[in-house]
Amino acid sequence: MSKAKVTSKLTELEKRIRKVAASLKQDKFGEQIRNEIVNKVRKDAFRFKTGKRFRKLHPITIESRKRLAKHNKTHPDYSPSKPNLTFTGRLLDSVKARIQAKGSSIVLRINVSGMHAPYKSSLGEIGKSQSNKKIRKELANIGRDPLELSKKANRRLTRIITAIIKERLFKR
């Protein structure tokens, strides 16, 4: 008995996937998702991991932020007591979204990039420059990662993206 063979034109599918990825880039789809996340964190101190606001800042942190604000240019959404991860705005401004076609799939990556300058104080600079990825990792360790999604949020985002891709992939 011979085995049935199934052949497909994978290269044709890959071309279509690349075309969909290019159209998503052109429509700035990744940037729209990025902006939604960043704006929700900045405006509402929203934590996507829990679906709730970030926990309140400790009084000592609030006082420290007030002192630092005297010597640093702060972001317009900054408030000493608002736990929205916005002091200077540099970390959230560094969030980037990339859409890539990889073989027979489309990948959306959202992450921070670049370096974060040290803060200034009355005594000069505090610490040294460090990568935003390192800062994000430190924030994750204390439960304040701005890009960490819950499983539910991740599934929802995946369903939305999949629907958009399917619509564009099979549109003739």
Describe this structure in words.
- The protein is an alpha+beta fold.
- The chain has a domain at 53-169.
- It has helices spanning 10-26, 29-44, 59-69, 90-93, 132-141, 151-169; strands at residues 46-47, 52-53, 95-102, 105-112, 115-116, 119-121, 124-126, 130-131.
- The strands form 4 sheets. The protein has a two-stranded antiparallel ribbon with strand order 1-2. A two-stranded antiparallel ribbon has the order 3-4.
Summary tags:
alpha+beta; 17% strand; 6 helices; 8 strands; single chain; 172 residues; two-stranded antiparallel ribbon
N-to-C SSE series? HHEEHHEEEEEEHH
Give the radius of gyration: 21 Å
Overall 3D form: elongated
**Unreliable sequence segments:** none
Structural class: alpha+beta
Beta-strand residue percentage: 15-25%
What's the main sheet like? 2 strands, antiparallel
Which bin fits the share of residues in helices? Answer: 40-55%
Task: Round the mean pLDDT to the nearest integer and report it.
Answer: 90
